[in-house]
Write a structure and sequence with these properties.
Layout lengths: L7 H5 L5 H13 L9 H13 L10 E9 L15 H10 L3 H9 L3 E7 L9 H4 L18 H20 L4 E9 L1 H13 L3 H4 L9 H18 L6 H8 L2 H15 L4 E3 L2 H13 L7 E3 L6 H9 L16 H19 L18 H11 L1
Helix pairs in contact: 2-3, 3-15, 5-15, 7-11, 7-12, 8-10, 8-13, 8-14, 12-13, 13-14
Length: 373
């Protein structure tokens, strides 16, 4: 029998410190630039101060990109421009430094960590630190079968928790969370549609490489069929992840929840991260207070999930490549907000003007003279 109790996260996760946020707001009102003149940067600085429990806010000095990797059996249906089982090529390109996230990370000085949860390849072909948390080789085809067994779903979820603990223990002070997957946006669409109670067509996007109309129809049909399997298990989030999720998706969900437990802020990348966040919100309603939506990827499922969690994307540049790139682009904005909140000087206090003696009315002056006589 499993010892994992998801209800524990509701008790373990606290909101960012409201008192600290009020102190940060008060400090902002005293700074030389009028409150509101920096737009959303004001809110970001105050949010980060509350997450850190510190005023003035500390600089974000040890961020990290964490990418969970996996292949999804539903990709066999031709729902992606990439062939099924090819996510390992994305992983290798990231490790070689040839993907957009790799270039951005080098430029920003941010390390990238890749965590293989269910790549469809021989684990011996990848570095040991990448494959050490792997649960299985590929995830099941969710339109006709479960993605994972119950035991695999729990193992993947626990792996995500462990990775969050490793990051927090190593001093990581902010995470950009993304995925490296083939078929992942289809899985994300199923989860979002199931949790938001909507139809497949509402959440079916065209993915990072813009599939054609025929592939979009295949993807929509796959999400529709998987939704039929998802709805009966909506009350059990771990079972939902086993039925229509995947090892990478289950791990990302556990990762997000444990980051909230450990008070580690997270920037969400695209639709897969947003779908995992939506599952995590169902488990612990306070958890989204620890997350930021990095950007708008253009995926309708992402927009639906973020709206449900009341998270507004920081950027909207049409970046749909996935792999954490859009989320990483938002990091300098967060760092800028922290710098402004911490380093802008406060207005000097204006000296109090001496009170002038009250002028007496003429009648009062005459009365005072008569009394003197």
């Amino acid at each position: 029998m499993s010892s994992l109790n998801l209800d524990d996260f509701t008790d373990l996760i606290e909101r960012p410190d409201g008192g600290v946020r009020r102190d940060a707001e008060a400090r902002r009102e005293r700074q030389i630039v009028p409150p509101g003149s920096l737009g959303r940067l004001d809110d970001l600085g105050e949010w980060l101060a509350a997450a850190q429990g510190a005023v003035p806010v500390r600089a974000v000095e040890r961020p990290r990109v964490v990418l969970f990797a996996g292949d999804h059996g539903v990709a066999e249906l031709g729902v992606s421009t990439r062939p099924a089982g090819s996510a390992v090529e994305l992983v290798r390109e990231v490790l070689r430094g040839g993907r957009p996230v790799s270039v951005l990370a080098r430029r920003l000085g941010v390390p990238v960590r890749v965590v293989d949860m269910a790549l469809d390849c021989d684990p011996q072909t990848l570095p040991a630190d990448v494959v050490k948390h792997r649960v299985r080789r590929g995830s099941g085809r969710i339109d006709i079968e479960d993605a994972l067994t119950a035991e695999e779903a729990e193992a993947a979820f626990r792996a995500g928790v462990a990775v969050a603990d490793e990051e927090a223990d190593s001093g990581t002070d902010l995470v950009v969370l993304g995925d490296l997957s083939v078929g992942g946006t289809t899985v994300a669409g199923v989860l979002v549609a199931a949790l938001c109670g909507t139809d497949a067509s509402v959440v079916t996007g065209r993915g990072g490489l813009a599939i054609d109309d025929l592939a979009w129809m295949r993807k929509c049909a796959a999400i529709r069929d998987a939704l039929r399997r998802a709805r009966p298990v909506l009350g059990d989030q771990l079972q939902l992840l086993a039925t229509v999720g995947g090892a990478d998706v289950a791990a990302m969900t556990g990762f997000l929840l444990q980051c909230a437990v450990r008070k580690t802020p997270v920037i969400l990348d695209g639709v897969v991260a947003a779908a995992c966040a939506l599952v995590a919100q169902r488990i612990a309603f306070r958890a989204p207070d620890w997350w930021l939506a990095g950007h708008n990827s253009g995926e309708p499922g992402q927009a639906k999930a973020l709206d449900r969690m009341a998270l507004e994307p920081l950027l909207d540049h049409g970046v749909s490549v996935g792999e954490g790139a859009g989320g990483l682009l938002a990091l300098p904005l967060v760092q800028a907000a922290a710098a402004l909140a911490a380093e802008l000087p406060e207005r000097p206090e204006e000296p109090e003007e001496p009170e002038e003696p009250e002028e007496k009315e003429p009648a009062e002056e005459l009365e005072a003279e008569l009394e003197a006589d």
